[in-house]
Specification:
470 residues, Immunoglobulin-like, 3 domains, five-stranded antiparallel sheet, 19 strands
């Protein structure tokens, strides 16, 4: 289809589609339902608005007079042949029952969005007027930003659907990050969804051969979705269980911290007692060593007495023998005691060393447990913060989900007139924006040879094959 024919077909289809739609939820006002405003914009290929007009549609229960407001350079009846009276931004017309529409060409040629479209060819920026017929790597960037000349209403509530169609006979290796791509015959349909309140760039990349392209269209609609999250109650129940479990965990952490404190206190007491034990054990070891040394000295100094007693034990005097035998027996007992004390002193030295190591271990354990107890306290505090932050989580989730859904359902929002604040009974506002598109580059036609004009005799000679050109 030729580009101009395609443009007319697309434009007519959009008009019929949008004029044939009904305003869902429009409240009846007397004999007329709320009006619908569809704003059509035609821009150049850079996004600059060249023409802006509105189609105002009404649904009348009975025939009557319509009064509507808007700043127009001209108005046109799209439903009947009746003339519309337009004075001082006020349009008045007699309308039949049913659907009635009229068009107004707007004086102010601005939209709530600032749409800027730029093009590059093989990485170099190119004016769109020079792009038709070119070949190479093409990148198209569509920038959507808020028009600061308008209020927040339309920018914050309306969703934009950006659509482009590339003929695969002229484009290959098509890329469009974040877009929905679909095949439509030999064309590749590219659709971006621009959410309310965003400022964003959208990019299409492709290899072009003899660049030509249908218009880019941007549709602005008030997105209204009825969303039912059937699993939300179950999710909230799960989060309630989670919150309860965290509460039990917090109780357990408190008990763990209390027990750890008691153990730390007891361990500190043991460590303190260990110092006294070490001192006492050291005293015992020293006493045993001194006693063993003293007894050894006594035994050593009794050597001569032992020799004398041994000699006297051979005496013929029974009393002397008995005295010598008794002394030798006592001396033998002292030697055994001395040997036992030496063994006890040596053994206790090992015991004292063990006690010292034990006390050192207890002290080390006490020091290490201080860190462990600090970790237990940190765990308790962390679980306490977790419990505090998750308290009422199910309610918070519900509130957050409601807030998020409100951004897309436009719950409770009713659009105001784009055309005049005097229009108070508005059911719907829509925007349809399209660029000019790119026509195929015109190819030079071969110059046809101009035949010389022949007179009668020359024509007669040519008829018989006798004519010769000069």
């Amino acid at each position: 289809m030729h580009m101009k024919t395609a443009k007319r077909a697309i434009s007519m289809g959009l008009v019929l589609l949008l004029l044939g739609s009904t305003a869902a939820g429009a409240a009846a006002s007397g004999e007329r339902q709320g009006k619908e405003e569809t704003i059509y914009a035609v821009t150049d290929n850079s996004g600059n608005v060249n023409n802006l007009y509105a189609v105002n549609s009404f649904e009348l229960q009975t025939a009557g007079e319509i009064t509507d407001y808007g700043d127009y350079s001209s108005v046109r009846n799209l439903t009947t042949t009746d003339e519309i009276s337009y004075t001082d931004d006020t349009a008045t017309v007699a309308a039949p029952a049913g659907r009635f529409s009229y068009q107004g060409d707007m004086v102010r040629k601005e939209l709530p969005w600032r749409i800027v479209i730029t093009y590059t060819l093989d990485g170099e920026k190119i004016d769109p007027g020079e792009l038709a017929g070119k070949s190479g790597e093409v990148e198209i960037t569509i920038s959507i930003k808020k028009n600061e000349g308008f209020g927040e209403e339309y920018f914050q509530h309306f969703t934009l659907q950006i659509s482009a169609s590339l003929d695969t006979e002229h484009f290959s290796s098509i890329e469009a990050s974040g877009a929905t791509l679909a095949n439509a015959g030999k064309n590749k349909s590219i659709t971006f969804t621009h959410l309310p309140g965003e400022e964003k760039d959208y990019t299409i990349k492709a290899e072009a051969t003899d660049f030509q392209m249908d218009p880019i269209t941007v549709s602005g609609i008030l997105l209204s979705m009825s969303i039912e999250l059937t699993g939300l109650d179950g999710l909230k129940s799960d989060f309630t269980k989670l919150t309860d479990g965290i509460g039990e965990l917090d109780d357990g952490a408190k008990e763990l911290e209390n027990g750890s404190s008691q153990f730390k206190s007891g361990l500190s007491s043991v460590a303190a007692g260990g110092s006294s034990l070490t001192e006492a054990s050291s005293g015992i070891g020293s006493g045993l060593s001194q006693a063993a040394d003293g007894l050894s000295q006594v035994i050593s100094s009794s050597g001569q007495l032992k020799t004398l007693a041994t000699a006297l034990s051979a005496s013929s005097d029974p009393q002397v023998q008995a005295l010598a035998a008794g002394y030798l027996a006592q001396l033998s007992s002292l030697e055994q005691i001395s040997s036992g004390l030496n063994q006890l002193s040596a053994g206790y030295s090992q015991l004292d060393s063990g006690i010292s190591q034990l006390v050192q271990g207890v002290n080390s354990l006490a020091d290490s447990y201080k860190k462990l107890h600090s970790g237990v306290s940190g765990l308790r505090n962390g679980i306490g913060e977790l419990k505090s932050s998750t308290s009422g989580l199910d309610t918070k989730i519900q509130d957050k989900v409601d807030d998020m859904l409100a951004e897309y359902t436009n719950s409770g929002y009713t659009p105001t007139s784009f055309l005049s604040e005097k229009n108070t009974d508005v059911a719907a506002v829509q925007f349809v924006i399209r660029t000019e598109g790119f026509e195929p580059a015109e190819k030079e036609q071969p110059t046809e040879a101009v035949e010389p004009e022949l007179n009668f005799w020359q024509k007669l000679l040519k008829l018989f094959g006798l004519y010769q050109e000069a």
